[in-house]
Design goal:
Strand content: 25-35%
Number of helices: 1
Distance between the termini: 106 Å
Number of strands: 20
Helix content: 10-25%
Shape: elongated
Largest sheet: 6 strands, antiparallel
Strand order of the largest sheet: 3-2-6-14-15-16
Radius of gyration: 29 Å
Low-confidence stretches: none
Oligomer: single chain
Mean pLDDT: 91
Length: about 375
């Protein structure tokens, strides 16, 4: 029988040491690759969030103030005695609020439609349609700006025939209306425009009856101050979009609710538009010499008349959403935002995206 051979104890220890070194190297390579992947994913999320948020606000801004072929800042007729509701107010194409450390200028409590708990303030209706759809203003992040942009959407409903009288129902060529009964709608041509409450819809007929509305939106008989609308007129819904920053409904890999861009559209409840947006800042380009060109950029609180605003400088701060070991500090500080214990950072990446937008406002 031949002599048996094998590893000596020294050889086994050397092999174990070499394999441990190799495994350690592989582990370090794996961790480095994972960190690089997380970093690249965070950068991608930050880019997508920032560009999307800026693009959405920009598109609304470019359309703000559009009233069809009679797009001026002149006040238009309305068939009811109550003030035009905030969510339908084409007479105010732009409404801005400058965020401070504890409040906004102008004060959002004085005008912004809000629903805090079960309490509605400045919403379109006290019950039924529109009720309970305001913004929870207690969640809006202090120090961030808020902006509302109002306009007519591209979709219109042309009159099928001339209106025989100002009290007749409005007959249109379409029936796929983007508004419903009790909404405020807009009838317009190149000479006149009117806000009215839709009392009902029957096929291609839009009704504007004088039935009493408890909130003060009871229609009067006359739909226009002069003449009757012809078949060259259109009926349109009214678009109103309010943008603001508040905590997300979801959580990141740290178990925290990152800040997000929210939007309230018309009398619908607010929706989270894109997460990873922790700041919104807007400067207003004001025309001070009536030449349709902005002479200076100011905060919302310094705008005397928003009809004089000709452009916006919009800036958003986007984040990676998840902790990727970034070293930037939260925009609003650790007293407002989450920071890792004993640090002034939260591990998120951050980048500012900005754009200047020319407006049709006042044209």
């Amino acid at each position: 029988m031949g002599k048996l051979s094998g590893f000596t104890l020294v050889e086994a220890l050397i092999g174990l040491a070499l394999s441990s070194t190799i495994m350690l190297g592989v582990s370090q390579l794996f961790l480095a690759n994972a960190k690089t992947y997380n970093l690249l994913s965070g950068q991608s999320a930050m880019q997508e969030s920032g560009r999307f948020a800026l693009g959405v606000i920009t598109r609304s801004a470019q359309t703000s103030g559009y009233k069809g072929c009679f797009s001026t800042n002149a006040s238009v007729h309305k068939t009811f005695l109550a003030d035009i509701p905030y969510e339908f107010n084409l007479d105010r194409p732009i409404i801005g609020y400058e965020g401070g450390s504890s409040t906004w200028n102008p004060n959002i409590s004085n005008s912004l439609p809000s629903t805090v708990g079960t309490i509605d303030t400045h919403v379109y209706k006290s019950s039924g349609i529109g009720a309970g759809t305001g913004i929870d203003i207690t969640t809006i992040t202090k120090g961030t700006d808020i902006i509302t942009l109002n306009y007519l959407p591209q979709k219109t409903h042309r009159l099928k025939i001339d209106m025989p009288t100002n009290t007749a129902d409005i007959q249109t060529t379409t029936q796929d209306f983007d508004f419903a009964a009790e909404h405020i709608a807009f009838i317009h041509d190149c000479e006149k425009q009117t806000f009215f409450r839709v009392s009902g819809i029957a096929g291609d007929l839009i009704e504007h009856a004088t039935t009493i509305d408890a909130d003060g939106y009871t229609n009067a008989n006359i739909l226009a101050r002069f003449g009757a609308f012809k078949n060259s007129a259109y009926v349109s819904a009214i678009a109103s979009e309010t943008y603001y920053v508040a905590p997300s409904e979801g959580t990141n890999n740290s178990g925290q609710n990152p800040l997000s861009l929210w939007r309230k559209s018309g009398i619908s409840p607010p929706t989270e538009l894109v997460d990873g947006i922790e700041d919104l800042q807007i400067k207003y380009g004001v025309d001070t010499d009536n030449d349709k060109i902005p002479n200076r950029y100011v905060d919302a609180g310094a705008v005397i008349n928003f009809d004089d605003v000709r452009s916006l400088r919009i800036s958003v701060v986007a984040t990676s959403i998840d902790d990727v070991d970034g070293t930037s500090t939260p925009t609003h500080g650790c007293s407002t935002q989450y920071c890792k214990p004993g640090t002034a950072t939260d591990g998120l990446l951050r980048r500012t995206f900005s754009q200047t937008v020319a407006l049709r406002n006042g044209r």
